[in-house]
Hints:
The chain has helices spanning 5-16, 25-28, 59-70, 106-118, 124-133, 155-158, 160-176, 194-202, 207-211, 222-231, 317-325, 329-333, 342-358, 403-411, 425-432, 434-442, 447-461, and strands at residues 122-123, 183-188, 213-218, 234-239, 242-247, 254-257, 269-274, 283-288, 291-299, 305-309, 337-340, 360-369, 378-381, 384-386, 396-398, 401-402, 417-424, 463-465, 478-480, 484-491. By secondary structure, it is of the alpha/beta class. The strands form 5 sheets. Strands 2, 3, 6, 7, 12, 16, 17 and 20 form an 8-stranded mixed β-sheet that branches. Helix 7 (160-176) crosses helix 8, helix 13 (342-358) packs across helix 14 (403-411) and helix 16 (434-442) packs antiparallel against helix 17. It is globular. The model is unreliable at 24-79 (pLDDT under 50).
Amino acid sequence: MFRSPAAAAAAAFLRLIAPRISGGSDATHRRFPPPVSASSLARFSSTPTSSPSPPPSSVSARDDEAEDGQHQEEPRDSGAKLSITVDRSGLYNPPEHSHEPSSDSELVKHLKSIIKFRSGPISVAEYMEEVLTNPQSGFYINRDVFGPSGDFITSPEVSQMFGEMIGVWAMCLWEQMGQPEKVNLIELGPGRGTLLADLLRGSAKFVNFTKALNINLVECSPTLQKVQYNTLKCEDEPVGDETRTVSKLCGAPVSWHASLEHVPSGLPTIIVAHEFYDALPIHQFQKASRGWCEKMVDLTEDSSFRFVLSPQPTASLLYLSKRCHWTSSEELEKVEHIEVCPKAMEITEEIAERISSDGGGALIIDYGKDGIVSDSLQAIRKHKFVHILDNPGSADLSAYVDFASIRHSAKEVSDDISVHGPMTQSQFLGSLGINFRVEALLQNCTEEQAESLRTGYWQLVGDGEAPFWEGPDDQTPIGMGTRYLAMAIVNKKQGTPVPFE
Length: 501
């Protein structure tokens, strides 16, 4: 069978990865319940909308004036005395203050204040952005939400093999770029840093590759930055009058950035975006008698959240128009709801521009569709689905990724880039050799580790419930292999990336 040079390189890399389970006790004894859904992290910085301060009450000043009127000096005329009265009926009488604590969280108070200040609803996108990345109370900002003890499980937390396969893809792309001496390795929304740590451990034998890396993590959560620092075994080293952070897993420098635009350009680039796009804020539109209307978040009379339709056109209709331009009239006639993610369009354009000018490529893996997405927004708390408006800030919000929109957004930026896929995660990992990897690991492990490997393998590439499972029903491994899709954006100079040939 003919193999492309890139595919041959992938096979060579896979053979050299250490045939053992990586890490300490945490890595060798991973036992995870199946994910209900996946969501990450994107994690993109947002600017909070400050709640207005109420105008200062004028009661005190007006009371002083009234009192002055009652104590006017008596006239010197000894005739009839002048009597003065003050009408207080027009003065403001504030309601009695209640000292009972409010059950609303700070984020809920903040959201309600925005809606009340504007005297109208806010978009689902603004609601989602505040809930996930509000600098003070956002879901991702002050907690570690990943893994069995968190709210959801992602592929890197399932098995070390996922990060290792991403490493094989990255090394193949580096080969196709001509093995540059320096390259920017960028991960968008790194979660706990597990994917990157497994990638670096798996590629440890390829010294020229690891020596070339400048690692850049795009992460807005201070809490997760600290977790990533520890996961990557980072240490701070003095460099002249300054210090730099280095990962002891490979000796590469590590930097954190609030957004992709803050990552220095000028070097060939490898970008990994795993479960990043699904957490970007979306706008929702619903077909009504007067046309497409935006779905909004408003308050009821008892001050609880509810969904409403915008009574008038919104600025976001421009993005809806752009998305519909990429869609056939037949497809549009079939849907009553459409989700559009302007942030995804903008970030994809930025990725395409960077790859066009600096060279390299990007790998995007997420759950989604290769077409219009309709009403997919969901909320997950402690591995269970909850209502989207229930206790904002206590559950993760995510939506299906529109891979067709990503493809069109990238292609419109430059003729120097090409887009490949999407293909299913099962096809992607299988083509990179995950079958051979799991067989190699099973040769050097305990029975407990073997069970964990088989379970993790099924969750990564399987479809539906694992047929071999004999444990508790509520822990049956659920395969992500067909629900998740993989797409690559590369500079045309590199040719077609593996395994999209």
